Amino acid sequence: MKTADVLEGANSMLAFDVERVRADFPILHQEIYGRPLVYLDNGASAQCPRPVIDSMSEVYETIYANVHRGVHHLSQRSTDAYEGAREKVARFVNAESSDEIVFARGTTEAINLVADSFGRAFLEPGDEVVISHMEHHSNIVPWQLLRDRAGIVLKVIPIDDSGNLMMEAYQELLGPRTKLVAITHVANSIGTIVPVKEVARLAHAVGAKVLVDGAQAVPHLQVDVQDLGVDFYAFSSHKLYGPTGIGVLWGRLDLLNALPPYQGGGDMIQRVTLEKSEFKAAPHRFEAGTPAIVEAVGLGAAIDYVTGLGLDNIAAHEHGILAYVTAKLSAIEGLEIVGTAEDKAAIVSFTMFNAHAHDIGTILDRAGVAVRAGHHCAEPTMDRFGLAATARASFGLYNTREEVDLLVEGLMLVKEFFG
Amino acid sequence: MFDELRQLYQEVILDHGTQPRNHHALADATCRADGSNPVCGDMLTVYLKVAPDGTVADAAFEGKGCAISMASASLMTELVKGRTVTAVEALFRSFHRLCTEDGYVLDDAEEDADRLNVLAGVREFPVRVKCATLAWHTMNAAMSGNAETSTE
User: Fold this and answer.
1) ipTM of this complex
2) Which helix (H) or strand (E) holds A11?
3) Which CATH code, of 3.40.50.970, 3.90.1150.10, 3.40.930.10, 3.90.79.10, is assigned to A3-48+311-418?
4) B13 in contact with A at a CB cutoff of 8 Å?
5) pLDDT tens digits, residue range A163-206?
6) Which of A208, A236, A288, B89: disulfide with A247, CB 3.0–4.6 Å?
7) Secondary structure E strands in A200-353
8) Contact B40 A389 (CB under 8 A)
9) Which one is catalytic: A377, A389, A391, A406?
10) What is d(CA B141, CA B134) in angstroms, rounded to the nearest whole number?
11) A378 vs B102: CA distance, rounded Å
């Protein structure tokens, strides 16, 4: 590295230069209906920076082949790139070993994997799985399917009117039949940051394991799975400025190796005869078939990108935005913020007058502002607040205060029609 | 600026959208159907009371949704009353064309059908066409004896 690069790196640590960051994201520099694009739907999918896009093109242009199979040069190089991405993920979440990193299609598949394999290995009829009232459907439906299939009991930790997890009620739910607590780290619909470390400590006290849905957390917080003390941690690449089609299940190695395979197929076996098969150890046991090789490399590049900027810097920038947007939106007549927990990520759900979320979404869209409108795949959370839907602005590392001002300008149109 | 939005969210739409008419259950309905749009989670129920002579004697709906879907349901229930089932089916086809075909307008000669023209602005918002047509598809399902329908 040249001295100038080192100095530049040092400067970026001192002050998060959002304009320089924005220059890395080609998609942001366009107009929508003649207005500058304001992309505030990062909670659904964040955009990819140039290095992520380039990393994937480079694989296709130079080293692409199937992994773990060929003796030929390209297969070896693709395997190195794919396994290199696994190493990056392991360092990113501070796993003890890259063998603890299972690649899945996304958070949803990672949770389904645990529901299926952990369910078969460890859950008996009558055993209890605890979730919260602010889960994404991907951390509700797999457990309902398991309940219907295996006779487990599903319990739900309530949340208060601000969207905080009710810790005392949680403690009362825990008991000798509790085998797993499956909980979000950051609630996708209302932004609450859950005190996962404390949740895990209490769960372990009754002998239960803990699975965390980290889909919304990894882009906003420095995640250290060992420090959190959890047993499984799932997240998706596409919310972390990486491509779709790939995600991660981290699990404690002894636990992963105690689980039966999730899907069967090539690449996950030690030996197959027509009578029976022997399976590889984790993580390969859980990766049947050709994986998303190029996307894994893209995820690795995304991790390089965010760690290069510094998760602490990103968090500080986003907290500044959150404070600014919360103040601005609170001042708008008729606007109600849904989810006002003490500890929040940069996600703001809201309603406005009697306008339906889809009307707000359409109006903001014409103002160039992309938000999510609907139930955010968290219908029970919406029910908790007596709502069918909200509009949600979710912020990422490239969003600015000027964009918050454009959001507010768009909301003035909502007021014009519905106020 | 924002002309298309102002065309979509006209006074009539906002009036019917926020204070829909015939927004209640119909105890003596002869047919009903539930409709849903899984994309936005909107669900509504349409009730029709069809007289023995094939005339729609009463129409109503229940449910919550966006201004477009509520206004469309509200106007629909007003307009189908007094029409024969055959005429309602024709109106449904016309309304569908109104929501999707550039330049198409409903003729005022046809008993107030032109009141639906306020919904033509939805053409410029392709993802919102389903909001405008949900109630109509649901009504169609009710008339043809299907208890459930979906925009998907």
Assistant:
1) 0.89
2) helix A3-14
3) 3.90.1150.10
4) no
5) 999 999 999 999 999 999 999 999 999 999 999 999 999 999 99
6) A236
7) 209-213, 232-236, 247-251, 269-272, 277-279, 335-338, 347-352
8) yes
9) A377
10) 11
11) 37
